[in-house]
Amino acid sequence: MSLSARQRVLAVAGITLAGLLAGAVPAATAQSVAAAPDIPVANVKQHLADLQSIASANGGNGGNRAHGRAGYKASIDFVKAKLDAAGYTTRIEQFTSSGSTGYNLIADWPGGDTNQVLMAGSHLDSVTSGPGINDNGSGSAAILETALAVARTGYQPTKHLRFAWWGAEELGLVGSKYYVNNLPSTERAKISGYLNFDMIGSPNPGYFVYDDDPTIEKNFKDYFAGIGVPTEIETEGDGRSDHASFKNVGIPVGGLFTGASRTKTSAQVQKWGGTATAFDRCYHSSCDTTTNINDTALDRNSDAIAHAIWNLSSGTTTPPTGTVFENTSDVSIPDNGAVVTSSVNVTGITGNAPSDLAVGVDIIHTWRGDLVVDLIAPDGTVYNLKPYSSSDSADNVQTTYTVNASAEVANGSWSLRVQDRATYDTGYINSFKLTFP
Ligand code: TRP
Ligand code: ZN
Ligand code: CA
After folding, report:
1. Would the pTM of this model clear 0.90, i.e. be above it?
2. What is the rounded average pLDDT of the residues 221-228?
3. Is 421 near ligand 1, meaning CB less than 6 Å away?
4. Quick one: DSSP state of residue 137?
Protein backbone atom coordinates (compact mmCIF):
# COMPACT_ATOMS: atom_id res chain seq x y z
CA MET A 1 0.00 0.00 0.00
CA SER A 2 1.37 3.42 -0.76
CA LEU A 3 0.52 6.25 1.52
CA SER A 4 -1.52 9.25 0.61
CA ALA A 5 -0.09 12.68 1.08
CA ARG A 6 -2.73 13.21 3.71
CA GLN A 7 -1.56 10.28 5.78
CA ARG A 8 1.98 11.60 5.64
CA VAL A 9 0.90 15.09 6.71
CA LEU A 10 -1.04 13.62 9.59
CA ALA A 11 1.90 11.49 10.58
CA VAL A 12 4.05 14.57 10.79
CA ALA A 13 1.42 16.17 12.99
CA GLY A 14 1.63 13.15 15.28
CA ILE A 15 -1.91 12.09 14.41
CA THR A 16 -1.87 8.64 12.93
CA LEU A 17 -4.18 5.78 12.38
CA ALA A 18 -2.32 3.86 15.05
CA GLY A 19 -2.86 6.71 17.46
CA LEU A 20 -6.51 7.01 16.54
CA LEU A 21 -7.12 3.29 16.87
CA ALA A 22 -5.53 3.41 20.24
CA GLY A 23 -8.37 5.62 21.48
CA ALA A 24 -8.38 9.08 22.90
CA VAL A 25 -5.98 9.66 25.72
CA PRO A 26 -5.27 13.06 27.19
CA ALA A 27 -2.08 14.61 25.84
CA ALA A 28 0.89 13.24 27.69
CA THR A 29 2.72 15.94 29.56
CA ALA A 30 6.41 16.03 28.76
CA GLN A 31 8.04 13.05 30.38
CA SER A 32 11.38 11.46 29.87
CA VAL A 33 11.34 8.11 28.19
CA ALA A 34 13.92 5.41 28.68
CA ALA A 35 15.98 5.14 25.50
CA ALA A 36 16.14 1.75 23.84
CA PRO A 37 19.20 -0.25 24.85
CA ASP A 38 21.82 -1.35 22.37
CA ILE A 39 21.08 -4.95 21.42
CA PRO A 40 24.29 -6.99 21.70
CA VAL A 41 24.78 -8.56 18.29
CA ALA A 42 26.95 -11.27 19.90
CA ASN A 43 23.86 -12.49 21.76
CA VAL A 44 21.79 -12.49 18.58
CA LYS A 45 24.53 -14.49 16.85
CA GLN A 46 24.60 -16.98 19.72
CA HIS A 47 20.87 -17.60 19.19
CA LEU A 48 21.63 -18.20 15.51
CA ALA A 49 24.38 -20.67 16.41
CA ASP A 50 21.91 -22.49 18.66
CA LEU A 51 19.29 -22.61 15.88
CA GLN A 52 21.99 -23.94 13.51
CA SER A 53 22.82 -26.71 16.03
CA ILE A 54 19.13 -27.59 16.25
CA ALA A 55 18.91 -27.83 12.46
CA SER A 56 22.12 -29.86 12.19
CA ALA A 57 20.80 -32.36 14.74
CA ASN A 58 17.56 -32.76 12.81
CA GLY A 59 16.99 -33.84 9.26
CA GLY A 60 20.51 -34.82 8.22
CA ASN A 61 22.52 -33.19 5.42
CA GLY A 62 22.95 -29.89 7.28
CA GLY A 63 19.44 -30.26 8.63
CA ASN A 64 16.40 -28.02 8.68
CA ARG A 65 13.82 -26.47 10.99
CA ALA A 66 10.84 -26.92 8.69
CA HIS A 67 7.15 -27.18 9.57
CA GLY A 68 6.26 -30.73 10.59
CA ARG A 69 9.90 -31.69 11.21
CA ALA A 70 11.61 -32.32 14.56
CA GLY A 71 13.86 -29.28 14.06
CA TYR A 72 10.86 -26.96 14.12
CA LYS A 73 9.48 -28.13 17.45
CA ALA A 74 13.00 -28.06 18.92
CA SER A 75 13.32 -24.42 17.76
CA ILE A 76 10.04 -23.53 19.49
CA ASP A 77 11.12 -25.22 22.71
CA PHE A 78 14.48 -23.43 22.60
CA VAL A 79 12.93 -19.95 22.27
CA LYS A 80 10.19 -20.68 24.82
CA ALA A 81 12.66 -21.78 27.51
CA LYS A 82 14.60 -18.50 27.25
CA LEU A 83 11.43 -16.41 27.50
CA ASP A 84 10.02 -18.40 30.41
CA ALA A 85 13.27 -17.95 32.32
CA ALA A 86 13.13 -14.18 31.69
CA GLY A 87 9.62 -13.82 33.14
CA TYR A 88 7.43 -13.85 30.04
CA THR A 89 3.98 -15.44 29.99
CA THR A 90 4.20 -17.86 27.09
CA ARG A 91 1.76 -20.07 25.29
CA ILE A 92 2.07 -22.42 22.36
CA GLU A 93 -0.74 -22.37 19.82
CA GLN A 94 -1.19 -25.55 17.77
CA PHE A 95 -2.63 -25.87 14.31
CA THR A 96 -2.61 -28.40 11.51
CA SER A 97 -1.21 -27.75 8.05
CA SER A 98 -0.46 -30.27 5.27
CA GLY A 99 -1.23 -33.09 7.68
CA SER A 100 1.33 -32.02 10.30
CA THR A 101 0.98 -30.21 13.60
CA GLY A 102 2.31 -26.65 13.53
CA TYR A 103 3.13 -24.35 16.44
CA ASN A 104 3.07 -20.62 17.13
CA LEU A 105 4.77 -19.29 20.24
CA ILE A 106 3.15 -16.22 21.84
CA ALA A 107 4.98 -14.39 24.64
CA ASP A 108 3.45 -11.56 26.68
CA TRP A 109 5.50 -9.23 28.84
CA PRO A 110 3.38 -8.71 31.97
CA GLY A 111 2.17 -5.13 32.47
CA GLY A 112 1.28 -2.17 30.30
CA ASP A 113 -2.15 -1.22 29.01
CA THR A 114 -3.64 -4.44 27.64
CA ASN A 115 -6.06 -2.35 25.58
CA GLN A 116 -3.06 -1.11 23.57
CA VAL A 117 -0.94 -4.05 22.51
CA LEU A 118 2.23 -3.60 20.46
CA MET A 119 3.25 -6.84 18.77
CA ALA A 120 6.49 -7.95 17.10
CA GLY A 121 6.75 -11.24 15.25
CA SER A 122 8.99 -13.40 13.07
CA HIS A 123 8.50 -16.76 11.44
CA LEU A 124 10.60 -19.47 13.06
CA ASP A 125 10.20 -22.19 10.42
CA SER A 126 12.72 -22.82 7.66
CA VAL A 127 12.17 -24.44 4.29
CA THR A 128 12.99 -28.17 4.16
CA SER A 129 16.09 -27.60 2.04
CA GLY A 130 18.19 -25.90 4.69
CA PRO A 131 18.60 -24.60 8.26
CA GLY A 132 17.05 -21.19 7.53
CA ILE A 133 19.52 -19.02 9.43
CA ASN A 134 18.95 -15.79 7.51
CA ASP A 135 15.39 -16.88 6.55
CA ASN A 136 14.34 -16.58 9.28
CA GLY A 137 16.62 -17.36 12.17
CA SER A 138 17.69 -13.71 11.82
CA GLY A 139 14.34 -12.11 12.64
CA SER A 140 13.57 -14.79 15.24
CA ALA A 141 16.88 -14.29 17.07
CA ALA A 142 16.68 -10.49 16.93
CA ILE A 143 13.21 -10.29 18.48
CA LEU A 144 14.21 -12.93 21.04
CA GLU A 145 17.17 -10.81 22.12
CA THR A 146 14.98 -7.68 22.13
CA ALA A 147 12.46 -9.47 24.36
CA LEU A 148 15.29 -10.51 26.68
CA ALA A 149 16.54 -6.89 26.73
CA VAL A 150 13.06 -5.76 27.82
CA ALA A 151 13.35 -8.16 30.76
CA ARG A 152 16.99 -7.31 31.58
CA THR A 153 16.31 -3.58 31.73
CA GLY A 154 13.03 -4.01 33.62
CA TYR A 155 11.31 -1.90 30.96
CA GLN A 156 7.76 -0.99 31.92
CA PRO A 157 6.14 0.36 28.77
CA THR A 158 2.85 2.25 28.62
CA LYS A 159 1.57 -0.25 26.08
CA HIS A 160 1.48 -4.00 26.54
CA LEU A 161 4.19 -5.89 24.64
CA ARG A 162 3.64 -9.19 22.88
CA PHE A 163 6.19 -11.16 20.87
CA ALA A 164 5.34 -14.00 18.48
CA TRP A 165 7.19 -16.70 16.57
CA TRP A 166 5.13 -18.08 13.71
CA GLY A 167 4.99 -21.60 12.31
CA ALA A 168 4.53 -22.64 8.68
CA GLU A 169 5.15 -19.20 7.13
CA GLU A 170 6.92 -20.97 4.29
CA LEU A 171 3.70 -22.86 3.50
CA GLY A 172 1.77 -19.60 3.00
CA LEU A 173 1.73 -17.55 6.23
CA VAL A 174 -0.21 -20.40 7.84
CA GLY A 175 0.68 -19.81 11.50
CA SER A 176 0.10 -16.05 11.54
CA LYS A 177 -3.19 -16.41 9.68
CA TYR A 178 -4.27 -19.01 12.23
CA TYR A 179 -3.42 -16.64 15.08
CA VAL A 180 -5.30 -13.69 13.58
CA ASN A 181 -8.32 -15.78 12.59
CA ASN A 182 -8.62 -17.31 16.04
CA LEU A 183 -8.22 -14.09 17.96
CA PRO A 184 -11.60 -12.83 19.22
CA SER A 185 -12.44 -9.54 17.50
CA THR A 186 -12.32 -7.73 20.84
CA GLU A 187 -8.68 -8.86 21.25
CA ARG A 188 -7.86 -7.99 17.65
CA ALA A 189 -9.10 -4.45 18.19
CA LYS A 190 -6.58 -4.00 21.01
CA ILE A 191 -3.56 -4.54 18.78
CA SER A 192 -2.29 -1.05 17.99
CA GLY A 193 0.50 -2.27 15.73
CA TYR A 194 2.32 -5.33 14.42
CA LEU A 195 6.04 -5.25 13.50
CA ASN A 196 7.40 -8.03 11.25
CA PHE A 197 11.00 -9.17 10.87
CA ASP A 198 11.77 -11.69 8.15
CA MET A 199 15.34 -11.85 6.72
CA ILE A 200 17.30 -9.07 8.40
CA GLY A 201 20.86 -10.38 8.08
CA SER A 202 21.22 -11.01 4.36
CA PRO A 203 24.88 -11.58 3.36
CA ASN A 204 24.81 -8.86 0.65
CA PRO A 205 22.35 -6.61 2.47
CA GLY A 206 20.05 -3.79 1.52
CA TYR A 207 18.19 -1.77 4.14
CA PHE A 208 14.49 -1.96 3.37
CA VAL A 209 11.61 -0.55 5.40
CA TYR A 210 8.03 -1.66 4.79
CA ASP A 211 5.86 1.16 3.41
CA ASP A 212 2.78 0.69 5.58
CA ASP A 213 1.69 2.45 8.76
CA PRO A 214 3.34 5.92 8.67
CA THR A 215 4.22 6.06 12.37
CA ILE A 216 5.92 2.67 12.35
CA GLU A 217 7.71 3.43 9.09
CA LYS A 218 8.96 6.77 10.41
CA ASN A 219 10.35 5.13 13.52
CA PHE A 220 12.51 2.79 11.50
CA LYS A 221 13.59 5.46 9.04
CA ASP A 222 14.52 7.83 11.86
CA TYR A 223 16.69 5.16 13.40
CA PHE A 224 18.61 4.49 10.21
CA ALA A 225 18.88 8.22 9.43
CA GLY A 226 20.38 8.67 12.89
CA ILE A 227 23.17 6.19 12.16
CA GLY A 228 23.66 7.56 8.62
CA VAL A 229 22.45 4.49 6.75
CA PRO A 230 20.19 5.14 3.74
CA THR A 231 17.04 3.04 3.43
CA GLU A 232 14.66 2.16 0.64
CA ILE A 233 11.05 1.07 0.61
CA GLU A 234 10.61 -2.72 0.61
CA THR A 235 9.33 -3.85 -2.81
CA GLU A 236 10.46 -7.48 -3.10
CA GLY A 237 6.95 -8.79 -2.63
CA ASP A 238 4.56 -6.92 -0.34
CA GLY A 239 2.40 -9.49 1.37
CA ARG A 240 5.13 -12.14 1.26
CA SER A 241 5.46 -12.43 5.02
CA ASP A 242 3.38 -12.61 8.18
CA HIS A 243 2.57 -8.90 8.42
CA ALA A 244 0.08 -9.52 5.59
CA SER A 245 -2.08 -11.59 7.97
CA PHE A 246 -2.41 -8.56 10.25
CA LYS A 247 -2.69 -5.94 7.53
CA ASN A 248 -5.59 -7.87 5.99
CA VAL A 249 -7.70 -7.30 9.09
CA GLY A 250 -6.84 -3.61 9.34
CA ILE A 251 -4.05 -3.71 11.94
CA PRO A 252 -1.29 -1.11 11.33
CA VAL A 253 1.89 -2.93 10.29
CA GLY A 254 5.54 -2.29 9.53
CA GLY A 255 8.85 -4.10 9.36
CA LEU A 256 12.39 -4.47 8.10
CA PHE A 257 14.05 -6.59 5.41
CA THR A 258 17.55 -6.93 3.93
CA GLY A 259 16.65 -8.66 0.66
CA ALA A 260 16.09 -12.17 -0.67
CA SER A 261 16.77 -13.56 -4.15
CA ARG A 262 16.50 -10.29 -6.04
CA THR A 263 19.74 -8.79 -7.44
CA LYS A 264 21.28 -5.70 -5.86
CA THR A 265 21.48 -2.95 -8.50
CA SER A 266 24.68 -1.01 -9.14
CA ALA A 267 22.99 2.05 -7.63
CA GLN A 268 22.31 0.00 -4.50
CA VAL A 269 25.93 -1.18 -4.44
CA GLN A 270 26.98 2.51 -4.52
CA LYS A 271 24.67 3.16 -1.61
CA TRP A 272 25.27 0.14 0.61
CA GLY A 273 28.42 -1.58 -0.64
CA GLY A 274 28.49 -5.28 -1.46
CA THR A 275 28.17 -6.67 -4.96
CA ALA A 276 25.63 -6.52 -7.80
CA THR A 277 24.44 -10.07 -7.09
CA ALA A 278 21.55 -11.50 -5.08
CA PHE A 279 20.95 -9.96 -1.65
CA ASP A 280 20.87 -13.55 -0.39
CA ARG A 281 22.37 -16.10 -2.80
CA CYS A 282 21.47 -18.87 -0.30
CA TYR A 283 17.79 -17.92 -0.12
CA HIS A 284 15.76 -21.10 0.50
CA SER A 285 18.78 -23.34 -0.01
CA SER A 286 21.07 -25.57 2.04
CA CYS A 287 23.77 -22.89 2.35
CA ASP A 288 21.51 -20.65 4.48
CA THR A 289 23.73 -21.39 7.50
CA THR A 290 25.45 -19.24 10.13
CA THR A 291 27.98 -18.18 7.47
CA ASN A 292 25.11 -16.69 5.44
CA ILE A 293 24.78 -13.64 7.72
CA ASN A 294 26.13 -10.11 7.43
CA ASP A 295 26.91 -9.15 11.03
CA THR A 296 26.64 -5.40 10.40
CA ALA A 297 23.16 -5.76 8.92
CA LEU A 298 22.09 -8.05 11.75
CA ASP A 299 23.44 -5.56 14.31
CA ARG A 300 21.83 -2.47 12.78
CA ASN A 301 18.48 -4.15 12.29
CA SER A 302 18.45 -5.55 15.83
CA ASP A 303 19.09 -2.07 17.21
CA ALA A 304 16.41 -0.60 14.93
CA ILE A 305 13.93 -3.16 16.27
CA ALA A 306 14.64 -2.16 19.86
CA HIS A 307 14.43 1.53 18.95
CA ALA A 308 10.99 1.07 17.36
CA ILE A 309 9.62 -1.16 20.11
CA TRP A 310 10.70 1.22 22.85
CA ASN A 311 9.40 4.29 21.03
CA LEU A 312 6.10 2.84 19.90
CA SER A 313 5.27 1.39 23.32
CA SER A 314 6.32 4.30 25.50
CA GLY A 315 3.10 6.24 25.04
CA THR A 316 4.64 9.59 24.24
CA THR A 317 3.44 9.70 20.65
CA THR A 318 0.46 11.87 21.51
CA PRO A 319 -2.90 10.65 20.28
CA PRO A 320 -5.42 13.36 19.47
CA THR A 321 -7.09 14.90 22.46
CA GLY A 322 -10.76 15.66 22.72
CA THR A 323 -14.02 13.82 22.91
CA VAL A 324 -14.36 10.77 20.76
CA PHE A 325 -17.51 9.15 19.39
CA GLU A 326 -16.80 5.88 17.67
CA ASN A 327 -18.76 3.06 16.10
CA THR A 328 -16.67 -0.10 15.74
CA SER A 329 -19.45 -2.40 14.51
CA ASP A 330 -18.51 -3.92 11.16
CA VAL A 331 -20.85 -2.98 8.29
CA SER A 332 -20.42 -4.98 5.10
CA ILE A 333 -20.49 -3.00 1.87
CA PRO A 334 -22.40 -4.77 -0.91
CA ASP A 335 -20.52 -5.05 -4.19
CA ASN A 336 -21.66 -2.39 -6.70
CA GLY A 337 -24.71 -2.01 -4.51
CA ALA A 338 -26.77 0.06 -2.14
CA VAL A 339 -25.38 2.68 0.23
CA VAL A 340 -24.61 1.56 3.77
CA THR A 341 -24.00 3.68 6.84
CA SER A 342 -22.33 3.54 10.23
CA SER A 343 -23.52 6.13 12.75
CA VAL A 344 -22.50 7.74 16.00
CA ASN A 345 -24.74 9.75 18.32
CA VAL A 346 -22.99 12.91 19.49
CA THR A 347 -24.15 14.26 22.85
CA GLY A 348 -22.97 16.78 25.37
CA ILE A 349 -21.20 19.16 22.97
CA THR A 350 -22.35 22.79 23.22
CA GLY A 351 -23.04 24.73 20.01
CA ASN A 352 -21.70 23.94 16.59
CA ALA A 353 -19.19 21.37 15.39
CA PRO A 354 -15.61 22.63 14.87
CA SER A 355 -13.97 23.82 11.66
CA ASP A 356 -11.48 20.98 12.07
CA LEU A 357 -13.70 18.01 12.87
CA ALA A 358 -11.52 14.87 12.75
CA VAL A 359 -13.34 12.12 10.86
CA GLY A 360 -11.59 8.81 11.38
CA VAL A 361 -12.41 6.34 8.62
CA ASP A 362 -11.32 2.70 8.69
CA ILE A 363 -12.67 0.75 5.73
CA ILE A 364 -11.23 -2.60 4.69
CA HIS A 365 -11.61 -3.09 0.94
CA THR A 366 -9.65 -4.84 -1.81
CA TRP A 367 -9.98 -1.95 -4.34
CA ARG A 368 -10.75 1.34 -2.64
CA GLY A 369 -11.31 3.25 -5.88
CA ASP A 370 -14.74 1.57 -6.02
CA LEU A 371 -15.87 3.52 -2.98
CA VAL A 372 -17.64 6.84 -2.53
CA VAL A 373 -17.39 7.94 1.09
CA ASP A 374 -19.43 10.77 2.62
CA LEU A 375 -19.96 12.25 6.03
CA ILE A 376 -23.63 13.04 6.76
CA ALA A 377 -24.38 15.70 9.39
CA PRO A 378 -27.40 15.36 11.73
CA ASP A 379 -29.47 17.70 9.46
CA GLY A 380 -28.62 15.63 6.36
CA THR A 381 -25.89 17.86 4.90
CA VAL A 382 -23.46 15.75 2.84
CA TYR A 383 -19.68 16.24 3.04
CA ASN A 384 -17.86 14.18 0.45
CA LEU A 385 -14.70 12.64 1.92
CA LYS A 386 -13.60 10.51 -1.00
CA PRO A 387 -14.82 10.34 -4.61
CA TYR A 388 -15.06 7.29 -6.87
CA SER A 389 -11.88 6.56 -8.83
CA SER A 390 -11.59 3.81 -11.43
CA SER A 391 -7.80 3.83 -11.17
CA ASP A 392 -7.10 3.74 -7.42
CA SER A 393 -6.46 0.03 -6.94
CA ALA A 394 -4.95 0.29 -3.46
CA ASP A 395 -6.44 -1.54 -0.50
CA ASN A 396 -8.43 0.06 2.30
CA VAL A 397 -9.42 3.58 3.32
CA GLN A 398 -7.67 4.10 6.63
CA THR A 399 -7.21 7.76 7.33
CA THR A 400 -8.47 10.79 9.20
CA TYR A 401 -10.19 13.50 7.21
CA THR A 402 -10.46 17.03 8.55
CA VAL A 403 -13.86 18.53 7.80
CA ASN A 404 -15.00 22.12 8.29
CA ALA A 405 -18.28 21.31 10.03
CA SER A 406 -18.73 24.70 11.69
CA ALA A 407 -22.11 25.19 9.97
CA GLU A 408 -23.52 22.13 11.76
CA VAL A 409 -24.98 21.73 15.22
CA ALA A 410 -22.68 19.25 16.97
CA ASN A 411 -25.20 17.13 18.83
CA GLY A 412 -27.19 14.51 16.95
CA SER A 413 -26.68 11.49 14.76
CA TRP A 414 -23.74 11.66 12.33
CA SER A 415 -23.20 8.99 9.70
CA LEU A 416 -20.45 7.66 7.52
CA ARG A 417 -22.11 6.77 4.20
CA VAL A 418 -20.34 4.39 1.87
CA GLN A 419 -21.27 3.08 -1.54
CA ASP A 420 -19.36 0.60 -3.71
CA ARG A 421 -19.89 1.58 -7.37
CA ALA A 422 -18.05 -1.15 -9.31
CA THR A 423 -18.27 -4.92 -9.39
CA TYR A 424 -15.80 -7.49 -8.15
CA ASP A 425 -13.93 -6.04 -5.13
CA THR A 426 -15.70 -5.80 -1.77
CA GLY A 427 -15.13 -4.89 1.85
CA TYR A 428 -16.58 -3.53 5.05
CA ILE A 429 -16.60 -0.51 7.37
CA ASN A 430 -14.35 -1.43 10.26
CA SER A 431 -14.87 1.75 12.28
CA PHE A 432 -16.10 5.34 12.05
CA LYS A 433 -14.95 7.91 14.55
CA LEU A 434 -15.53 11.62 15.19
CA THR A 435 -13.14 13.55 17.40
CA PHE A 436 -14.31 16.91 18.78
CA PRO A 437 -11.36 19.01 19.98
N1 TRP B 1 9.95 -15.65 3.72
C2 TRP B 1 9.72 -14.71 2.67
C3 TRP B 1 9.40 -15.53 1.44
O4 TRP B 1 9.97 -16.58 1.25
C5 TRP B 1 10.93 -13.86 2.38
C6 TRP B 1 10.57 -12.66 1.63
C7 TRP B 1 10.62 -12.48 0.31
C8 TRP B 1 10.14 -11.45 2.21
N9 TRP B 1 10.20 -11.24 0.00
C10 TRP B 1 9.91 -10.59 1.15
C11 TRP B 1 9.91 -11.04 3.52
C12 TRP B 1 9.48 -9.30 1.38
C13 TRP B 1 9.47 -9.74 3.73
C14 TRP B 1 9.23 -8.89 2.68
O15 TRP B 1 8.54 -15.15 0.66
ZN1 ZN C 1 11.02 -15.87 5.52
CA1 CA D 1 -16.66 -3.50 -5.91
Report:
1. no
2. 96
3. no
4. I
